[in-house]
Structures are given as structure tokens and as C-alpha cells.
Amino acid sequence: MKKLYALFLCFVIALNIAAPAYAADSNIDSGGGNMGEATGASWWSPGRDGVRITVIRDSDNAPVTAPVDFSNGGNSDITVHFEKSSKLSYCKGTKLALDTDKYKCFRPKQAMPYIINSKSRPASITAVRSYFCREGTMQDIAAATGFPYGELVSGAYKVLLEPIVYVRYHDIMFAMTATEAALYNKMVSGDLKNNLTNVTHKNLPMAMFLETADLGFPAWDGAIDQVQDDETIINNLGLGIIRFSAPDPEPPKESDVTYRCDTEVITSVLLSAGSQKTPDSPAYARFTINGKTYSHTDIYIPKGDSQLAWVKWRTPKEPGIITITVRSNCSVSTRTITAQVVTVDENPPPDPQANDRNDGFSIPSKPSKPNITSLTWGEWDCWWHEHWVWHSGDEDDDGYYCDHGWWQYEWIPYSASLTATFQTKPDEKNPTASGRQMKSGYGLNASVSAQVRSNAPSSQITGLQNVVAYFPEFNYATYWRLLKRLNTGLSSSFELQKNKYSTYGRPSHFSPVWFPDGRYTTYAECIDAWTPAGMLQINLTDDLTIKDSVFDDWHIGPAR
Description:
The chain has helices at residues 87-91, 125-132, 135-145, 149-152, 178-187, 191-195, 197-203, 230-236; strands at 4-7, 11-14, 24-28, 49-57, 62-63, 68-71, 81-82, 98-99, 157-169, 172-177, 240-244, 257-260, 264-272, 283-289, 292-299, 306-314, 320-328, 331-332, 336-342, 374-385, 388-391, 400-403, 406-426, 437-440, 443-454, 466-470, 481-482, 484-485, 491-495, 509-510, 518-531, 534-549. It is mainly β. It is flat, with a radius of gyration of 34 Å.
């Protein structure tokens, strides 16, 4: 059994709908207010409204049906309307086009509630939510658009709704959505808004707006009873979305690769050629990532051989799971890659306190994880090797040369290596530190210098981009600090970020006052130096010595 979800506009209300084929949980609001204006030749009759409906594929936000207008009336008096386009299409560049042919609309089996608010015929948010969550309404939408009902509610599609007004403007009857009204107002240099301000630029666009961002449009959190300008309407208002739940999802697949947020990475697959790939017929690989396609083209491979294909791209700023799909004219090692994007900048240590204690603590062993400091890969070059052969002629022909050449291949090897140094030292605000010895409770600094060296083009590699430091008081887990990158490129350097608990705003980490005398080892994972063959990584440690505590620097003298 499917569930229908209306992700529509502002706050959540549970609905009890009689005998639907699915339950509905609506998310909807609207605004507007009294009309209170009209000119003699321009006015609106409350209740004359409708909704434009377009079915959208959820995976790529592409319309899969032509827009259809729903209305309770025939609207035979409409003289001017616009060639039907959705808000999504207009915002992607479709031009507004006047249409004076007979206006066509679909009259649903059950009448719609009022859509646009007015004093004499107020719109009910509850009624609008209920109506567009009905199974009967979904069946009407399927019939009107010609889209199969089963597919419509399968979870792979959503429905875009746009309020429509039927209004008299300079004694001519118009039909228009909120987006069309704003676009047309720009065409007539503001005259539509001057004559029908509260209709076209307040109550019509405020009839529907999103609570949750979707289709590239933001959630609306502005005033709901104010006149709006054209650009605000075009970019924010006059739309609602109905979503449908998919069947119970399969358990999430374990990720194939882990990336960090907002990081330049290289994703690769292995191509195998059943027939030779040459400059006349090269191989390619196209990676679809977060709705965008990245391509590696002009790949040459001898028959029966193979080569990596790769693309460089930047991960999103927010964590999540990304499914990467790969298309190629060769055999591919995998056509789907599940990538987990994680953040490493959200778990710094808490504020240390003077009365903190950890009586059972013992200094842990240093972490030991494998390093990947060098990687190799390559690509094929290909050119035509000419081989001219003389063919003798007969008595009337002197003969001719013919090129019996072949495609020549050469393997171009590449490699990349990573080196790095890691240093910790007592913070300069530590008054009693001596060399590499300090008292517990004071701050320390940490810095990394890294170098990636490679004979490959820069498009095939990245520098080191992230360093994460772990500390012994947390057993090299629980809390960590992401270092700040000071410069970009193949030579990079890092230092601790400013500590919000530091009185002086220092880039430091405070050792706990209870830490015992002995070795204090900071561990750093230097990650995200990417190549087509994978990620270079080096794990480093550096030691300071703890002797005594900050309390030994305090002196309590007699009162004077």
C-alpha cells in the first residue's frame, strides 16, 4: 500500500480522509488578504480560480507531462491566456507567449475548493490539503495528463501545482498563473500590478508556497499578507508540490568509497576494450554525480586491454549518500558507485575545566594505521603507423602505393607520491614551557606541511586537502580537530583552527589538567590527496612531554 504525501507549503496537520487507497500527511499553508481594490476595467470575481498541474520525475526534476489546467468552470469567456508552461520551465528560460486560441481546461469530477483567498469566498487551507490528497483527485490528474495512475503514485514522480486566476484586465478576460502574471507585468511595464495589485501580486502568489525547498525553489519564510514584486513571485511563490512515498526501501547499501564534504576528489573505473579504441573510435566514460554529468573522453585502448577512466569533481558541502552511475562504450568494472560523503569538522573537544578529573586514565598506545604514500596508473597513447606498399600495375598502369599501416599504442606510466611532516609544540602563550616540555592544562599547537609529487597532468591529481588530529586523552577517538588549510596546490600546509575556548583566540588544543606526567602524543591523519588510482594518505605522530600541571604555576600569597 502506498502513502501519499503532500509536501506543499508551511505547517503539518494530520488529515483523516474517508476511504482513500493511501493515507495522507499534508504540509501546507497560504496567505493573502482582503482584495479591496479594482479599477473600472480591471477586476476579479472571487472564486474564479484554478490550478495548473504538471507531473515531474523525482530523480531529475524533469517534467514528464504537458501542463494541464484544472478549473471548476468552462471559462469560455477567456480571451487571452498564455501557451501552457510550468513554473519550472519558465525559470529555465521558456519565454512567455500570448495565446488567443480557445482556452482549454479540465473540469474534475469533484469540484475543487476555493484556491485564492478573498473576503467573500475565503480559501480553506484544510480543504485544499484534503482535496489534493484524495485518491479521486489523483485519478483525475492521471486521466487529464494521460499519465498512468499506478506510476503516478509509485514514488518515482511528484505533482507540481500552480494557482491560476481568471481575471478581467482592461476589459479583456485573462487566465494566468502567478509566475505568468509576474512575467506579463514586466512585459507591460508594471501596468498589470498597478491595476490588480492585490490579485496578481498578493493573493494569487500567496495561494501556494513551499515549506520545504524543492525543484530548485526555496521554502518561503517571508510575510504572507504583503504585496510582492515580480522577481520574488517568479523565484519563490505560486507553487505547491505533492510527493508520493515509494515502497519500503531496501536496506542501505554499504558505501564503496568515503569522501569528505567540500573536497576535490577523483572517481575512477576500469575500462576493458573488446575491440581496439583509436582516435577514430575512442572510448569514453560518463559519470553522473548529483544530477551532473562529468566525462572522460578520447580514451585509446588496444584490443583486449584496459585502462582507468576518471573524473575530478567537488563533493557537496553537506554530508549524505551519493549514487554515482557510469556509462561507457567499453566493459566497466562497475556501473554504480555508492559514495558516502561525511563531515569531519563537527566534533571538536569540549571546553576543558579546571576541576576535570580522570583518575583511572592511562596513556594509550600510539595509533598504527597503514600509509598509502605512492600510487601508479597510466593511459594509452595511440597514433597511426604508416606502412606504404607498392602495388605493380599491368601494361596500361604504372602501379600505385597503398598504406597498409596500423594503429600503434604506447603505455604512458604515471605515479604520485605524498610526503608530510607533523610538528606539535607548546603554545606561545604557555609561560612555563621549555622546549618540548610543558605542564598539563596549557595549550599546544600543531602544524603539517605536505607535498604531492607526480609526473601526471594536474587534472589527474590533487594536493593534500584535509588533516584530522586526534588526542590521547580521548584514546584517539570520540573527539578530534580538523586542521585549517593555509594554502592550496600540491604543496600545502595546515594548522589548528582557532579554539573558541581560547582567551586569546589561539589556534591551539588544551591538554587536560589531569593528564599524567609522561608522553603526550598527538596523532594526525593526512588525507584527501586523490589520484585515478585512489587516495594517498599518511598518518603521523608527534610527541611532547608533560611534567607537572598548570596548578604548579599558581601561587597563593597572604592577604595584605
